[in-house]
Amino acid sequence: SINEISKGNMAVELDMHGYSELHKITDSFNQMIEVIQNQESSRQEFVSNVSHELKTPLASMKVLSDSLLSQEGMPEEIYREFLGDITTEIERMTQIINDLLSMVKLDQNTANIIISNISINDLIEQLLKRLRPIAGKRNIELIFESFRPVMADVDEVKLSMALNNLIENAIKYNYDDGWVKVTLNADHKFFYVTVQDSGVGIPEDSLDSVFERFFRVDKARSRATGGTGLGLAITRSVILLHRGSIKVYSKEKEGTTFTVRIPLNYIQ
Ligand code: ADP
């Protein structure tokens, strides 16, 4: 009968409905498992990167101290030179550990963010004042262009660290006699900081990776300039903590521009 046919239809419909519900649940479980697996593998990669980064200075210290121990009657200058090299390696390890600690603190959510309404112009002026002697050594000009005075709710210490990393990089990865230009602007909602340099640039295929922990285009160059590969990861975390965003544009051998956008008012 018609009735039976429609009952049958309903059963089929119900079955299909139940099946697709089940399918949805399985799909979201699979997605969750994938997320956890990705997190686990990036955690493992992180631990192995940290270990590697710390092993490198340890290995050089071992070579240096072994040779100090094995050779008797070494001239004092050589002795001192080796000790100086060991100190350099210790400083490097300290830098890596400090960067790691900053990063761990930033990862512990927003609990320890200290917001105050400050002048971003002053903050940038202070950073540039501190970096000018370093840039001056390679005759790199630091320029600041502010389109308006900007007051914003920020964590002063953390934002200083974030912008400092960008300006320091713009100096580090620059040519002698080059320039770094910092601009500051704002609209009614956000302030914008750009850090532009006339430096070596970043290859296009590396642009997506520069914010990853320990990523460096040129490990040797980064190490020689005291880089840990953590600077931009820290900068990005700080900016995200302020609910902001950061972007990078670059052309090899011409230069790089980082643009930062942060809300003027911090909303919990
Ligand atoms: P590092 O401690 O090596 O400087 P960062 O996380 O600060 O680490 O930067 C990651 C990598 O991105 C650097 O090693 C460098 O290769 C590249 N990079 C960052 N900033 C610049 C820049 N302004 N110009 C060219 N390359 C840059």
Automatic annotation (TrEMBL):
Any single Gene Ontology cellular-component annotation: plasma membrane
Domain Histidine kinase residue range list: 49-266
UniProt keyword list: ATP-binding, Cell membrane, Kinase, Membrane, Nucleotide-binding, Phosphoprotein, Transferase, Transmembrane, Transmembrane helix, Two-component regulatory system
Substrates-to-products reaction catalysed: ATP + protein L-histidine = ADP + protein N-phospho-L-histidine
EC number(s) on file: 2.7.13.3
GO molecular function: ATP binding; phosphorelay sensor kinase activity
Residue span(s) of domain HAMP: 1-41
Broad class of where this protein is predominantly found: membrane
Membrane topology: Multi-pass membrane protein
Cellular localization per UniProt: Cell membrane
UniProt name for this protein: histidine kinase
Higher taxonomy: Bacteria, Bacillati, Bacillota, Clostridia, Lachnospirales
